[in-house]
Task: inverse folding
């Protein structure tokens, strides 16, 4: 990280020729013919800047220079969060300020075989019908949309709006580090419009908080007994999915299933466990997991039979949610020099089996909304320990901590140095049915789009929970155009849904005169 830096320009120093400094429309731009022109101009400009998480300096500097060119007050913090302030337009000078929020970092994923250096290259945009895509990569609409909407309003001279405080955070995709770090005392606004929402038919009005917990079982290693056969137990082909958006779908968890099968083997045979692993990251329901085992050659048939029997039960249980699920045992040719002690092996099975997993409670105030859940998301073996990582989202903090406490009690019960450490504790943003901003937005939605908006509350955890905690009493909503499969190379933005959101945003601002 660089030294602390600030860039401040006085608000009253706005130059009359500011508009002359706006980014030129790029005639050759891929998005040049899309409307609203100003939005897609900025979307394309920003897409050219490499900006994975922790690599946001360039985009932050771009925004700082944008602000300076327009004589707008700007503050950049030491990790490149950026705040730009713009005074209210005529008639709105004394209105209560509105905060805009989005994040500058994007998820960097590319298809197999696609060579893309996210540290140096921007996103190569392409249009296919109603959709904008990356080219073999994530698009980064999450959250280029937010940055482009904010810059479009900051750049405008003809949109009536209250004083604006635009906060664009970094590191959102890797634990919300930017919002955690941001000094919210720099904000005077008590109402906030966020642009990290992907459904243009709804207004987003509340989210869960979450916390991740590492359950750490000290690994007792022993020399692998001579003469045993190595086999690999695998669980694969599960439907997987996002651990917060998809948890209500009752999908199987590969780590939980692995523990079930390993447990059945340990109960019946003198099997030795050499290692376990599973999962991809803390927000994904694990779709694969595996264990390396040693056993007597004479027991291989019996072990295969046990695996087949448990697999048959599991396939029946999950035939709707996970039709492609596979569980099997296969020879392993790697050299196995050490195994976990029986105590450690049994502890691993017990810990995974007894850790709460899946939906824990449903909301009784909002229909079909999961209130709290846990996902055992990652399993790994190192020299020191076997680690089982859980992510616990909940709409109520106390329930989040109560689930965490169950996991901690389990570690206590196991003893032998087992411990739980936590990280990325993010508060929730509770739904407020009396929100004034939500009422204004709902009216503006009906007036401009001639339809009633759905009001959505999510089981996922967003940066807005942090803003809600840092600025007590803040009134917030989130809006955005339609995007699908964000965080994957299938990510796409429906460009036809930007214009209605742009009209909606302008109408909301016009109505925030008080
Ligand atoms: Zn994201």
Result:
């Amino acid at each position: 990280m660089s030294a602390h830096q600030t860039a401040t320009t006085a608000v009253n120093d706005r130059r009359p020729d500011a508009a002359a400094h706006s980014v030129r429309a790029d005639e050759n731009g891929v998005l040049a013919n899309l409307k609203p022109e100003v939005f897609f101009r900025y979307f394309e400009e920003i897409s050219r800047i490499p900006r994975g998480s922790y690599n946001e300096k360039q985009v932050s500097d771009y925004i700082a220079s944008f602000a300076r060119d327009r004589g707008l007050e700007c503050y950049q913090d030491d990790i490149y969060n950026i705040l730009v302030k713009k005074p209210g337009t005529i008639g709105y000078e004394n209105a209560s300020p509105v905060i805009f929020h989005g994040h500058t970092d994007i998820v960097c994923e590319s298809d197999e075989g696609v060579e893309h250096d996210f540290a140096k290259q921007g996103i190569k945009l392409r249009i296919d019908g109603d959709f904008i895509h990356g080219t073999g990569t994530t698009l980064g609409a999450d959250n280029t949309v937010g940055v482009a909407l904010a810059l479009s309003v900051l750049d405008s001279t003809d949109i009536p709006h209250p004083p604006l405080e635009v906060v664009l955070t970094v590191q959102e995709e890797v634990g919300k580090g930017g919002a955690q770090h941001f000094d919210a005392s720099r904000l005077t606004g008590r109402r906030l419009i966020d642009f990290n929402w992907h459904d243009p038919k709804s207004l987003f009005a509340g989210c869960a908080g979450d916390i991740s917990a590492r359950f750490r079982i000290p690994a007792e290693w022993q020399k692998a007994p001579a003469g045993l056969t190595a086999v690999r137990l695998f669980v694969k082909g599960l439907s997987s999915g996002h651990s917060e958006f998809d948890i209500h779908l009752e999908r199987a968890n590969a780590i939980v299933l692995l523990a079930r099968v390993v447990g059945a083997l340990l109960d019946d045979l003198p099997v030795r466990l050499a290692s376990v692993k599973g999962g991809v990251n803390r927000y994904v329901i694990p779709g694969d997991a595996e264990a390396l085992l040693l056993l007597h050659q004479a027991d291989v048939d019996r072990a295969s039979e046990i695996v087949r029997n448990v697999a048959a039960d599991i396939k029946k249980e999950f035939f709707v949610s996970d039709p492609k699920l596979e569980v099997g045992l296969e020879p392993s040719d790697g050299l196995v020099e050490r195994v976990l002690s029986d105590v450690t092996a049994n502890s691993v099975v017990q810990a995974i089996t007894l850790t709460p997993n899946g939906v824990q409670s449903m909301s009784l105030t909002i229909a079909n909304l999961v209130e709290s859940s846990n996902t055992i998301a990652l399993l790994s073996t190192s020299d020191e320990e076997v680690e089982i990582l859980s992510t616990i989202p909940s709409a109520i903090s106390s329930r989040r901590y109560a689930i965490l406490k169950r996991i901690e009690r389990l570690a206590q019960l196991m003893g032998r140095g087992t411990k739980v450490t936590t990280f990325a504790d993010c508060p929730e943003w509770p739904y407020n049915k009396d929100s004034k901003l939500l009422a204004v937005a709902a009216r503006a939605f009906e007036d401009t789009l001639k339809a009633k908006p759905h009001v959505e509350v999510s089981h996922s955890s967003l940066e807005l929970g942090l803003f809600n905690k840092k600025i007590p009493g803040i009134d917030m909503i989130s809006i955005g155009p339609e995007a699908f499969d964000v965080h994957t190379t299938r990510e796409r933005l429906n460009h036809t849904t930007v214009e209605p959101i742009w009209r909606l945003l302008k109408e909301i601002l016009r109505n925030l005169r008080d």
